[in-house]
Amino acid sequence: MTNNRLGYRIGRWIVIALLILGGVAMIFPIFWLISTSLRPAPELLLVPPKLLPIHWTFDNYAKAMASAPLLLYMWNSTQFAVVSTVFILLTSTVAGYIFAKFRFPGNNFLFILVLATAIVPFEIYMVPLFLQVNALKLVNTQIGLFLPFLVLSYGIFFMRQNTKTSVPDELLDAARIDGMSEWGIMLRLVPRLLAPAISALAILAFIQAWTAFIWPLLILNKPSLFPMELGLSQFANTRVDFGLTSAAAVIAMLPTLIAFLILRRRIVEGVTLTGLKG
Amino acid sequence: MNSPLAAVRAVPRRTWLRYRFVFLVLAPVMALFFYVRILPTGQAVVMSFFKWELIKPAEQFVGLDNYANLLKDDNFRLAFFNTTIFAFFTTIISVALALLLAALLARAVGGRLGGALELLYFAPVLVSMVPVTLGWREIFNYNNGILNAGLGAIGIGKQPWLSDPTMALIAVIILSVWKQLGYNMIILIVGMRAIPRIFHEAAAVDGASAWQQFRHITMPLLAPVLLFVIVITTISSYNVFTQVYVLASDVQGAPGRLVRVIVYDIFENGFRFFNMGYAAAEAVYLFLIVIVLTIIQFRFLRGSDQ
Fold first, then answer.
1. d(Cα A58, Cα A64) in Å, to the nearest integer?
2. Are B282 and B266 in contact (CB under 8 A)?
3. How far is CA B97 from each of CA B91, B100, B105, B186, B305, rounded to the nearest angstrom?
4. Cα distance between residue A271 and residue B186, in whole Å
């Protein structure tokens, strides 16, 4: 009996130790990036490489920022992500609300259309989309970049689901009887009821735009318009010095890491809410 | 009284106002949606039947030629092969590991340590792909990389991670599993926590071991969530591009076309060779593959009941 308990406890500690080891391994590439970025150039060639720099230096950061407009890239990414998130929240919430709470001819048909496109991955329609944007002469423009990111099929589906479960018809009727206009209901009352869903969708939309790579790669070749992901990859293409590249990479990761440290719970909740409610 | 005008007049004013509201709200959203989603998707199918270069007048209907030529195209075959191997291993490994982690973290390790570990495993998911891929590129570096240093220390020789096509594929799989694992794990944890404890407790009273509980209670009830995780990992693996582009393509000056995947092939056909109709046909193939796999997975995993 005692043997069993002891065996169980040792087993438990071993499992915990392995889990922690695994967790360290998960973090390691990020740690390595940061560590390398703080190394002076000669240390990069050390074989075998050392875990931590012998001489710490911020030179790489200075050089990286001097040799490419990294902060501009960051600003571009920020504009892109904010605009995309706002539009996706707006379009998804109102469309989801209309689909969920209004009866009109074509409701089912249009919604099925939305659903059908929700399962088609971007990579499938990116070629014709490029041609369309090209025909509008919007290649290499900010608008051209933003365009496909202003709506999200899954967003409409998600908000419709949430509206059905969180917005009671009785409340809407009561508001109408009280004299509230349809617009007032839609833009003031409903969002208040859907706050958690909205914040989950906001996180999804923001991450999607922030980490977008393929579309910016297709539509932009003017460096002044590059978002961070694209800018960083082009930066790395033309430079051999990994100290420099890793400094740029850390700069790119910084906002995400800081946001993650501050908003941890929110982000994880948002991810699971959008992942499972569908 | 059967004219359309009579029908319009017969609609009550409230309903008419309601329709007008719906239209005003939905029309702009649907218009945008139509333009950036429906139209290009339809166009992709239409274009696939044409020889379509960037210069307009060169469109030429070729029926199923693009589809037939793709099947004979060595690049496409290689891309299909690589992508399938990639998707298969990435999905199996990341889902299996995620399941293991979820099982341990959902119940066995609780509290602050469990929460901290969850975040550690989830961190790679949030960080964007390009920076971490660059980090892994250095870890895989033949001479200076820490991975080879470690392998050298334990006696296995240095591996040509990024200069051998097979090793490069393995490298991309490792990177992708690393990135995807935390997401799968979190979803599975939520799924597991949703299973009422009472089932496990009742089984424990009846003498079931932890493993038996897992196999006969947790797994069947977790099946839909598990299916979801498998399907989304498979689909996103088939659409892999960014990490391959940064880690293992000829853009980096590496020996050309190291790990050719389908999306990269579409990208090259469409935007390097300007064979847009051909690229569109390839995209349609990709879509069909993904649909078929999803259906198979649904059938296979729905039908297996313990």
1. 10
2. yes
3. 10, 5, 12, 12, 22
4. 9
Ordered DSSP codes for B8-46 = HHHS-HHHHHHHHHHHHHHHHHHHHHIIIIIHHHHHHHH
Q: How many residue contacts between A and B have a Cβ separation below 8 Å?
A: 239
ipTM of the complex: 0.86
Kindly report the number of other CB atoms within 10 A of residue B283's CB atom: 28
Phi (first) and psi of residue B60, to 5 degrees = -155, 125
pLDDT tens by residue, A142-191? 999 999 999 999 999 999 999 999 999 999 999 999 988 889 999 999 99
Q: Which of residues 247-266 of B touch A (CB under 8 A)?
A: 251-252, 263, 266
Show Cβ contacts of residue A39 under 8 Å, excluding neighbours closer than 6 positions: A53, A55, A57, A60, A243
Asked if the Cβ–Cβ distance from A47 to B149 is below 8 Å, we say yes
Crossing angle for the helix pair A195-210 and A242-276, to the nearest 10 degrees: 150
Torsion of CA B266, B271, B272, B276, to 10 degrees: 70
How crowded is residue B14: how many other Cβ atoms within 10 Å of its Cβ?
8
Degrees (nearest 5) of the Cα angle B171, A35, B137?
Answer: 20
